[in-house]
Amino acid sequence: MRALVVEDSPIVRQVVARTLEGKGFEVRHAERKGDCQPVFDVAVRGLDLPDARGDVLATQLLDAGVVGKAVLFTAARDSQRLASVIDADDQVELERCLERLASTLKRADVTASRVLVVDDDVLTVRATARLLRARGHRVSTAGSIGDAVEIVTRERVRFDVAVLDIEMDTPTAGVDLARVLLRRGFVSRVVFHSGTTSAEVLEQAAQLGRVVPKGHPNTATWLVFDVENGTDAEGR
């Protein structure tokens, strides 16, 4: 595998390169987004670049097909929106995390899934979809129940996972949609997230799939974790 490392700190670049090369990666470096060369299997980027935010660059590289996978690391404290966060201030921790990362990447990749994300919160949809796509999943997004129904009807494929907000048009909109999607075979399993405090609604959701509390600072990351580590509807 080939890895593109975009990081403006020479020390961090050395640590990343040493760790990845020790695992058999062919490593190339870039200090700025303009230095990137296609096509690489893995891109490891620092976020504090002088001419671009790393997460913005990640999206551009993934969308353009320049890289197949993206991993972000940063010392920033607002980085909960990222799928993989490594504290670059701590070299020991950085090396340990990269060692684990390299081992994971050398093993079989996470099986790519078809994922449907339905939420009336645009920011949540974008964050969740971005993280899932960075992990190699194929993602369709909808901002309403109607949009979701249109997508599953039009695409005529079975989604592996549906990530659903519980409260949209109604307090139980996501639960109602999940029942339809599961019953008609449009999805294999569902993951919910919601800020509802209704024990009855949460119990209904838990009977159908996994529930992630909405408003948690790492909501999108936890949703990605559940998408990749859940089981099918019958084997929860």
The tally of domains stands at 2
CATH level-two architecture of the largest domain? 3-Layer(aba) Sandwich
Helix content: 40-55%
Give the low-pLDDT segments. Answer: 47-51, 75-90, 104-110, 231-236
Q: How many E-type strands?
A: 9
Number of helices: 8
Summarize the structure.
With 236 residues, the chain is an alpha/beta fold. The chain has eight helices and nine strands.
Summarize the structure in words:
- The protein is built from eight helices and nine strands.
- It has helices at residues 10-22, 54-63, 91-106, 122-134, 145-155, 173-183, 199-208, 219-229, and strands at 2-6, 26-30, 42-46, 70-73, 114-118, 138-142, 159-165, 187-194, 210-213.
- The protein folds into two domains: 2-108, Rossmann fold (3-Layer(aba) Sandwich), CATH 3.40.50; 114-229, Response regulator (Rossmann fold, 3-Layer(aba) Sandwich), CATH 3.40.50.
- Helices cover 40% and strands 20% of the residues.
- A five-stranded parallel β-sheet has the order 6-5-7-8-9, with helices on both faces.
- The chain starts with a strand and ends in a 7-residue tail after the last helix.
- Helix 6 (173-183) runs parallel beside helix 7 (199-208).
- The longest helix is centred in the middle third of the chain and has 16 residues, at 91-106.
